[in-house]
Each structure stands twice: as C-alpha cells, then as structure tokens.
C-alpha cells in the first residue's frame, strides 16, 4: 500500500477513535462540575512528558489518546470549571468543540482568496461592528487576542501619523518623540506594544486614577499640554473598559473629547469589558465606544470561545489598511479565479496566514443568539453584585478594595489587630488553599500595596450558589491560615 502521506492507513480506525474522542470531550465539559477544579501535575506525569524523546517512528493513535487521558486531561488548567474566576479566562462552550473540528477539517487559510471562509470572516467583522455600533466605514480584523489587538491599534496610530512617515522611514528619522497615554491601571501588554513599535515603555505616560481607578482626565489633559510644550508628539490615548485589577471603566466620553481636541488617536482596550455594552445598564455609560479610532476585545474572555481569538475594530477602514497594506507580487489579485474577490486580509493585519477563527464566532452567535449571550453577561454581572453584598454583610472580617463597577471584585480578610504584612500573607494563603484544596480558583490584585483576593466573572457555568460556597470556604479557611502565618 502506498503510505508516503500523513493520511491514516485505515480511515475507519481513525473515524472510530475520532468519534470516541469527540464524545469524550463533550462529556469532559458536561461533567466538569463533578471533577476537581485543579490539581498539580504529579511528579510522574511531569517526568513522563519531559523525558519523552523526539518520536522517530509512528505510535498508535489509541495509545497516544490513552496517554492524553491519563497524563493531560486530569491536569487541566481549571478554567472550564464553574468555580473558576481567576484572571480573565474563557470557560469554553461545548459546541465550539464542533467549530474547532470543522476549522481543522477545512484547514482554510483566510489571508487571501475567493472562498467560503472569507465571506464568513467578513460577515463576523460586520456583526462585531454592529454590536458596538461602529460606523459603516469602519472595519476590523480577528487576531489571536487583545495583546495583539492592542499592538495593532498602537501601530495604526503610529503608521497613520503624517502620511506613514514612520512606516516608511523608521522611528529614528522622526526626530521627535511619540507619547502614549493611559492610566496606571493599564494592562502590561500596552507597554509591550509601545516597546515593540519603537516608542519605548518610558514614553507611555501612566496617568493617575481616581478612587474608583478611572483615569484622571484633568491630569491627562495637563500632561498632554506639558508634552506639547516640550515639542513631544502626543500620539495615542489608550482608554480602558474593564481594567485588569478592578474592572474600572474610564470615562470614554471625556477621553474622546480630549482626543478630538488635540487630534490624538483614541484606542480602547476593552479586552473583557467591551461586551458589557450588550447589557442595557452599561450601554449609556459606554455610548462613546464607537468614537474610538480603534477598539480591542477578546472573544476568549466574556464570549467564552476557546482560546486564540480576539479582535480589533477601526472607525476608518482606510486608516486600518494604511497601517498594514503591502503588495507582494507573489500574492497578486486577479479579476477571476481563487485570487479574486476580497482585498486580502493581510492588508488589514500583522499576520499573513491565519486560521478560520471566524467560524467559532459565527457558529456561537447563530446557535445562541445575541440575546442569550447578553443574558449570560448580565448574569455574571448580577452574581458579582450578589457576592459584593455577601461581603458587605460581613464588615467585621472583609473589606472591599472599591465598589464593584463591572464583573470584577477585589476584597480581603481584615483584622484590626493584625499588621498589613500579616494580612497580606493570610489573604495570599487563602487564595492558595482554595486552589490546592480544590474549592475554587481565584487570583489576586495588589491595590495600594495591599493583597486582595480577586474574582473576574466571565464564567457562563457558575450559578448563584457557587458564590455562597466560595465565601463559606474562605471563612472556614481564615482560622487555619491565621494559624499557619502567625
Ligand atoms: C486579558 C487582557 C489583555 C490581554 O489580552 P490577551 O487576550 O491575553 O492577549 C489586555 N488587556 C486587558 C484589560 C485584559 O484583561
């Protein structure tokens, strides 16, 4: 038999194992509540994996899957579990297992070409524009996550400065320094983006925040004026919808006014928070969202899709194109045939070859509808408000870092008899024991140098009683943690 290919020798065998794996993975999500949320990979598992030699010959797929069942599935990260509220991690949806299967099966590259997936990519970008009330002239692109989306936003600001002067001649020929503005609460990937595009981390002005962790717009404007007076170039303001520590939402109205007044690019990092726009009570607060020149958000956070999917929208398609367009002659566009139709997507993004990620969004939106997606977001918001109330009911043992304004809550155990360093250590121990005992996974935030327990709720599987359970578990751990630390 001719076997010089990566296709299986026996297609029926492959189908059999494929069907088994597929049903197992659906059950893996279906039964996740009954399993331990997290356990540390055992020493034997670690050594088995790390000692594996580069495979020279073939191994039976059934054996490989057995190894996955024994060595990987029990040591999953935990974020598909209903009691996972750490960082901001998507829960995943069972039907996107099907989407991922179709994406791999089609294996379409959506950089270029006249083929079905390109129409779905275009449709999904238009749906996202519609969700955020972006103008018809706007456009966007799917990327791997908000870090890359923010990078694209800053790059577009830079490349649209004075007829692409930097794009063509490089940052060193500018003779002046670009300045980026954001708040002290901004995600570190914005600093990284400033570094990557040659602006430098020290040229990101981290403006002070008010008591609810929103950027101080007055201080921002003063800083801009002072930079202008020194002949620096205010290039971009990065506003936040949902800061990573506390979920703060900057005053986007006033950022957009300032950006307009000084002709500065306004980029918004709405990694998880942007989708609060789907919920009535946030819609008016976020009404200026579509005034941003660019808006980043993840679909692998609040929209629950499997990892590797974020997006950026631009108010002006021409500016997006201007920032990324290239015309390699090996990718010539024709009037007919496969290389016809769409303006290649690589003219709108950093990447060239890309997977057909749009299918995941397209399928989820069709399957559930925007109403169901919004009502999950509303539930997440309500549940965090509920937890906030439980905490406020116990002022003798808990303190909030600030009132809840989105889906994030930061709180800590307090005891007036204990010093701050002891409180930090006890709260940290509580977070660790919750994880190692398998009660729940939450993370932390340092706010004014104090250690706070932190939950970000984007978990569509959580139910109200999970939050009662969490607080009960924390209360039972307090005494034990005090004993260990004091
Ligand atoms: C998660 C997050 C990012 C980074 O997004 P990735 O998808 O992890 O690249 C940026 N900003 C904020 C506010 C975030 O929460």
Bound molecules: pyridoxal-5'-phosphate
Helix/strand-derived class? alpha/beta
Return Rg in Å.
25 Å
What is the number of helical segments per DSSP (H or I, 4+ residues)? 15
> Unreliable stretches, pLDDT < 50, 5 or more residues?
none
Q: Which range best describes the helical content: under 10%, 10-25%, 25-40%, 40-55%, 55-70% or over 70%? A: 40-55%
Largest sheet: 7 strands, mixed
Question: Any descriptors?
Answer:
15 helices; single chain; 486 residues; 7-stranded mixed sheet; globular; binds pyridoxal-5'-phosphate; alpha/beta; 4-stranded antiparallel sheet
Structure explained in plain terms:
This protein starts with 10 loop residues before the first helix and ends with a helix. The radius of gyration is 25 Å and the shape is globular. The chain is α/β, with parallel strands linked by helices. The chain is built from 15 helices and eleven strands. The strands form two sheets. A seven-stranded mixed sheet has the order 1-7-6-5-4-2-3, with helices on both faces. The chain has a four-stranded antiparallel sheet with strand order 8-9-11-10. Strand 2, helix 8 and strand 3 form a beta-alpha-beta unit. The site of pyridoxal-5'-phosphate has 13 residues, from helix 6.
